[in-house]
Amino acid sequence: MSEARVLVVANRTAESPELLEALRTRTMQGPCSFTLLIPSTPHGIAWAADMHGAGAEAEGHREAFLQELRDEGLNVKDAKVGDPDALAAIQDECNFNDYDELIVSTLPLRLSKWLKVDLPRKAQAATGLPVKHVIGSAS
User: Fold this and answer.
1) CA–CA distance from 124 to each of 35, 52, 57, 120 (Å)?
2) DSSP designation for 24
3) Residue ranges in the chain whose pLDDT is less than 50
4) How far is CA 130 from CA 5, 66, 86, 103, 121, in A?
5) Which of 50, 96, 109, 138 minimizes the number of CB atoms within 10 Å of its CB?
6) 10 Å Cβ neighbour count for 28?
7) What is the distance between the alpha carbons of residues 60 and 89, in angstroms, rounded to a whole number?
8) What pLDDT does 47 receive?
9) pTM for the full model?
10) Which of 109, 120, 72, 80 has the alpha carbon at shortest distance from 97?
11) pLDDT of amino acid 32
12) What local confidence, expressed as pLDDT, does residue 1 receive?
């Protein structure tokens, strides 16, 4: 059985226990490797002020989460910061690399801009890949 390539998309929930548990569970379903994609989506007032101002925060999430996953022994091939528009970031990544499935981690509905735009469903429609949606807590 070949190794499934899983694209994991998260920002503020990147270091959440819920997402970590979902990745652990995925490894039990068969051989897989993960690529982390952290869209540099700003939040709060930064969203209106500077659409591209969240790169440093996304990089911080990327570094912390990558270390956490490797400490857990998970097979992480790569970790990237992507476009501020999460759907564009997913499409860019899937256009240049092959994946077998997506895991999209969002904040709960009342807090999540990604859920308000129905990101998990749009990502599935745009990529044709199966999508697992994880609701995480903010880190």
Assistant:
1) 17, 25, 26, 6
2) H
3) 45-48
4) 12, 23, 17, 9, 10
5) 96
6) 7
7) 17
8) 44
9) 0.88
10) 80
11) 97
12) 65
